[in-house]
Amino acid sequence: MKVKRIVADNMQQALRQVSQLLGPDAVIVSSKKLEKGIEVVAALDLTDHADPGQQQEMDRQVNLQRELDQARRDMLGIRDQSGRESREEYVRQSDLSSTAGIRDALAGLKDGIPADSKPATPVTQPRPAAAPDVPATAGYDSLEDMRGELRELKNWLVSHQGSAWDTSRPLTWQQSQLWQRCQDMGLEPAWADRVVSACQSEQNMQDAWADALTRIRQDLPIARPEMLEQGGHYVLVGPTGAGKTTTIGKIAARFVLAHGADSVALLTLDNYRVAAHDQLRTFARILGVEMKVVTQGGDLAKAYQEVSHRKLVLIDSAGLSSQDPHFPQQLSMLKQVGKGLKKLLVLPLTSQARCLQENYEHFRPAGLDGCIFTKLDECFSLGAAMSVAALTRLPVTLVTNGPHIPDDLHYPEGQHLVKMAEQMACLARTRWQAAEAMNMATQQTSFQQGV
Known about the structure:
Layout: E1 2-8, H1 11-22, E2 27-34, E3 37-44, H2 52-82, H3 87-98, H4 103-110, H5 138-160, H6 173-185, H7 189-196, H8 205-219, H9 227-230, E4 232-237, H10 244-259, E5 264-268, H11 278-287, E6 290-293, H12 300-307, E7 312-316, H13 327-337, E8 342-348, H14 353-363, E9 368-374, H15 383-392, E10 396-400, E11 409-410, H16 414-448
Parallel strand pairs: 4-7, 4-8, 5-6, 5-7, 8-9, 9-10
Antiparallel strand pairs: 1-3, 2-3, 10-11
Helix pairs in contact: 2-3, 2-5, 4-5, 6-7, 8-16, 10-11, 12-13, 14-15
């Protein structure tokens, strides 16, 4: 085996020296970038000791290199005949053709394979051909294929640079930008992936974002606006402080104004806190509606049966955690009532995304039929609650946006919610940019004053 170490200004000069010193059958063993140039170690007759797999890969790369060189010569020959090629164009085409030897290294990087693990690439010396059998357009096709591979590699790098958890997300550059906007709105990554995966690559960013917002609106399930007019039997479940009791007061007050006090009945299961049902009892007294308190271990099914003839029945539950020993008992009581009672999960918009997800998992065994968004006037991001509704297919039934009874109670509108979520994201981004600008201005002023 004959080994040579060559130092040159660039890779093209190094390859030419390897071809001159060792011939067309030499292979590159290793390469290293120096402070002023590049170092290449080449060897001769290395293929004699290679295993069959490596030998096959080397032969494939040799044939590919020869085809690309032949295509370059054909392309340059055509341009010489037309008289339109300059010396600079020849140099540029030579540089492009020399990159063909590294296309497998680029593909290996895209597949996650270290460059060092790829088989050594033989260096070939171009030979003139009397009757070339490669079409003249092959050079253009090869260069276009190379540009396509570089474009895919760029998209792969861009789409993975912001996701340390999911390294398999196949996003283009445009989809990556849309995905980041969805994150600014607070959308869950799973929902954001589904939204941006339908993006058309030929669209400009403005049109693509408009289509993404449309898909978000279409994915958000909205219940039919019928509770406040037709009534029904509902139990509100959710964490402590979510606004269950206040929301029941708003619904009952709105219904009493339209249908009278005899059409409404209130029940409560919340006997675990001091004076827990006093607020609901106050609502019932002011509105003049019937109210029943189901004690611990009481018969909810019997109490519900006594008021089931009412047009609207609202049941308030206790916000017990999954570790509370009384939670399984309350869950069992709700299941005994039957299918006529709909369970609505109250989601406070001021909670973090993970808290809302855990609340859903906590109350899911009760058999949820929908959800209610509360505290819209206090929140700064709608994406987390919207994600829970979209990913779990829980229809949004009502939205509350303040403490006033019964005014701050509304039916949801998908387009309005999505627009508000986008505006909140833009406002938050503007605030942070302004804060950063003021911080930099303060630092500059302190520096100029020598503080």
